[in-house]
Amino acid sequence: MNLKKTTDSLRTASQKLSLQNASEKNTALKAVAQALDKNRASIIDANKTDVNKARSNGISESIIDRLLLDDKRINGIIESLYLVIGQTDPVGEEVAGWKTPNGMTIRQVRVPLGVVAIIYENRPNVTVDAFSLAYKSGNAILLRGSSSSYNSNKEIVRVIKDALKNTEGGVPEAIELVEVHEHDHSDVDQILNGVGMIDVCLPRGGKKLIANVVQNARVPVIETGSGVCHLFIDESADLEMACKIAENAKIQRPSVCNAIECIVVHSKIAEKFLPMLEKTFNDRVKLHADEKAIKFLKKASPATEEDFGNEYLDYECCIKTVDSIEEAIDYINSHNTKHSESIISQSRKNTRLFQSMIDASCVYVNASTRFTDGGEFGFGAELGISTQKLHARGPMGIKVLTTTKYLIDGEGQIR
After folding, report:
1. Exposed / middle / buried, residue 365 (Cβ in 10 Å: 0-12, 13-18, 19+)
2. So what's the pLDDT on residue 373?
3. Can you spell out the DSSP letters for 250-312?
4. Each residue's pLDDT tens digit, 172-184
5. For residue 230, which phi and psi values (nearest 5 degrees)?
6. Which of 123, 155, 162 is nearest to 46 (CA)?
7. Which of 18, 91, 203, 254 is the most exposed place for a label (fewest CB within 10 A)?
8. How far apart are CA 77 and CA 70, in angstroms?
9. What's the rounded Cα separation, in Å, for the pair 239 and 214?
10. Is pLDDT at 379 greater than 80 in this prediction?
């Protein structure tokens, strides 16, 4: 990959986009949505190639689930695109404004970041999500997906580019896909060292990918996190509710980052709750339990230190017992990835303590962690879940791809 040539083209495209109004960008995005709908057959065919290859390579079905596209998921992608279209364009928004004593007017306004790179794994829906958020916020985007989803991503990008080419005012140069070769990550190294060419890089994937980007990037990074999420069952919890939420948070889609990986149980209700949980899971989840919990379970295996803080991304979960909410908070804060945590409790005092003291981007009370998602938060799409504390935290929507600058108007003032 000739990164300089690619990013020069993207930079020019971002400059064109920065001059467009919301109506012009929305017209282009509507054309893309229509094109995705019209070309769904070719997209699904390309995806089948990726899925078949993944299965032949022995990839687990839970990971293949992240890769899979079908009519229902393409409908969801298109729906997300229309939600982005319906959002307010952040570019030009006046964040603050005031007049100085000497008569100058100062305005702080939102502007695009410029050229954004995203390095991601498996999920081809990210291709459309990242593009739509970047385009709406006036940015050009460089996509580096995984080899496992390359055929899907290539076809999606072709459809997007063709739609933009055939739309008046469309900027097809605002999106580029890196040609991926299996076992060759030299292009990733180029991106991470693209100082002056790339304004920000976002990793979205597993722990290994994120660590590589964060540790080796010389360009600015917005860190997204792997999802070691916990569900704490407090001593005052409604246990029926707890079972229902645990089932949803673990089983509905275990391969995603907002699924729970550990259930923390107050020891006072462990004897009653754990058999209820095991019955609810009904052999669908392999349980790894600590010494106290395993006494109340029929089929659990003993948990090891490797289980606590592990991201299974599968039908597996560990069980940890604690003697107080304070112990639960200490345990979660020392084993989580700052993603999403939830408490099931009828105690207002305990729920507020939990929300105050847990260090994570999203902290729930009596709800499933599966809601940590840009679409569920009303953003339409998302770039990922930021687990850092600077610039962005939690589900990242349009505004994350903007920064601000100050516009100062004077009448000849000097200092």
Report:
1. middle
2. 86
3. HHS-TTSTTSEEEEEEEHHHHHHHHHHHHHHHTTSSEEEE-HHHHTT-SS-EE--TTTTT---
4. 999 999 998 877 7
5. -120, 150
6. 155
7. 18
8. 11
9. 40
10. no
Task: State the Cα–Cα distance between residues 170 and 23, nearest whole angstrom.
Answer: 11
Rounded to whole angstroms, the Cα distance separating 258 from 209 reads 17
For residue 114, give the nearest of 402, 407, 406 by alpha carbon: 402
Of 142, 222, 130, the residue nearest 175 (C-alpha): 142
CA–CA gap between residue 211 and residue 220 (Å, rounded): 14
| 297, two tokens | 């379970």
Tell me: the pLDDT tens digits for 237-258?
Answer: 999 999 999 999 999 989 888 9
Per residue in 308-351, pLDDT (tens digit) is: 999 998 999 999 999 999 999 999 999 998 999 999 999 999 99
Rounded CA separation 136/185 (Å):
30
Task: Determine how many CB atoms are found less than 10 A away from the CB of residue 334.
Answer: 10
Report the predicted TM-score, pTM, of the whole model to 2 decimal places: 0.81
d(C-alpha 240, C-alpha 91), whole Å = 46
pLDDT at residue 184 in the model: 78
What average pLDDT does the segment 58-83 reach?
A: 92
162 has pLDDT over 90: yes
Range with lowest mean pLDDT among 83-87, 108-112, 393-397, 410-414:
393-397
Here the tokens at position 8 are: 């020069």
Between 263 and 63, the higher pLDDT residue: 263
DSSP assignment, residue 88?
A: P
pLDDT tens digits, 214-230: 899 999 998 877 789 99
